Amino acid sequence: MAGEPQADCLFCKIVEGAVPATVVRETETTVAFRDINPQAPTHVLVIPKVHYPDAASLAAAEPGIAADILREAAQVAADEKIDDHGYRIVFNTGSGAGQTVWHAHAHVLGGRGLQWPPG
Q: Which segments of the protein form a coiled coil according to its record (predicted)?
């Protein structure tokens, strides 16, 4: 059921503490942790504690939590001191866009030049 933890979801397991992660921030609704395969000097994932497969389904069902993710992404950028130089927030939605974990999440990337358009 949408919103409920999924037994086979890596990020749900991180939320419950069953899988370790390098957590940099946590709120009542979100967890932010370092990506294990960073694509920039700063690469932090911000996830909701509730399970939705992608950003679109999260935003439709729980717009307040979707806003929490964006607010926390900005706070991560400030904490990591990349907010003055620019940073990127990326939501991959669907396998064609590079989504590999089917739990909504934002990538916060910074600390190097980020060209446009991306790869």
A: none
Phi-psi region of 54 (alpha: psi -120 to 50; beta: other; left: phi over 0): beta
Q: Which two tokens stand for residue 20?
A: 């370790």
Alpha-carbon Rg for the chain, nearest whole angstrom, is 14
CA dist 8 and 11 (Å) reads 9
99: left (phi over 0), alpha (psi -120 to 50) or beta: beta
The pLDDT value recorded for residue 47 is 98
How many Å apart are CA 61 and CA 25, to the nearest integer? Answer: 24
Which residues does the annotation mark as catalytic? 105
Give the pairing type, strands 30-34 and 42-48: antiparallel
What pLDDT, on a 0 to 100 scale, did the predictor assign at position 1? 59
Q: What predicted TM-score, i.e. pTM, was given to this entire model?
A: 0.95
Contact between residue 11 and residue 103 where contact means Cβ atoms under 8 Å apart: yes
Beta-strand pair 30-34/23-26: antiparallel
CA 7 to chain centre: 19
